[in-house]
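Q: Second attempt. The first request was missing the SMILES, so the protein and magnesium ion are both included now.
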Amino acid sequence: MATAPNLLAFPQSVPQSLVEKYRPRALKDFCGNVKPKEILQRLAERPYSSSWILRGESGTGKTSAALALADAIPAQLQHVASQDCTAKRIEEVWQNCFYMPVAGKRFHLILVDEADLMSEEAYSCTAYQVRQEQVYWGA
Ligand SMILES: Nc1ncnc2c1ncn2[C@@H]1O[C@H](COP(=O)(O)OP(=O)(O)OP(=O)(O)O)[C@@H](O)[C@H]1O
Ligand SMILES: [Mg+2]
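A: Got both inputs this time. The predicted holo structure:
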């Protein structure tokens, strides 16, 4: 008779996913996307107060590119998950931007995943009043 596996014998740490393991860390390491990469690299060199929409198909590296941008600036990252993107949460992270970034960081970067799903209320709140630009990712 087969015995049940001993679950306690499994490693306690969760193994790193391949997507995470091979995610490009630097903008230069993304395949293709030559023009959008250039735009983000220029922004990393001379960051200014602005909001950016990265448009493109799912899985084409938009979130990864935003993380790489934060590293390149380097910026203090505040990552807002799509299910957490309420006006209250946006206002909260926006208020944090009025403080100096932590040591070693030059800017604040708020990354909102799946921004197309955010509520009208969240979209129209303060953080979206700054200059808005768009990059077509996956082009
Ligand atoms: N241009 C690319 N060069 C190298 N790796 C890429 C590229 N595009 C996507 N990837 C890989 O695909 C994975 C998924 O990318 P990511 O989650 O950033 O996509 P996304 O555009 O944010 O997707 P979604 O719209 O579903 O949120 C990344 O971990 C990355 O390793
Ligand atoms: Mg994403």
